[in-house]
Prior knowledge:
The chain is an alpha/beta fold. The chain contains four helices and six strands, in the order E-H-E-H-E-H-E-H-E-E.
Amino acid sequence: MDLILWRxxxxxxGEPDQGRALTGKGHKQAWKMADWLDHxxxxxxxxxxxxxxxxxxxxxxLGRKFKTHPGLSxxxxxxxxxxxxxxxxxxxxxxxxxHQPTLGQVASLLIAGQMQEWSIRKGSVxxxxxxxxxxxxxxxxxxxxxxxxIAK
Length: 152
């Protein structure tokens, strides 16, 4: 299974937290990353977003069908996110658009084998995949991409 973690782009400061919108810079970050993802994501990828305004605006830049899931709210746990993604049993790749610190916790759990406070920068993508060799399945980091690394 491939699990792609996309942190929402830069958002305005304020309350209520769920209603915070992307800034102008955030929209640019989302468009750049969406362009990279569109060229690299399989067409069968399942796309699931937090219902927060900033995550929905981030994923809308991709221009593909997606669903929101209340289990991906800003305060969700790593275990909740993995359950929503159906890790490691999904038959197709899954793209999750979500929040810190949960995304970093999921990345550390899948890559290092223990939950740590890893930081995923705004607008960035971490692509985690599994490899099977005989009876052994291992997780590995397939790609990390930040919007400021994408030329446009």
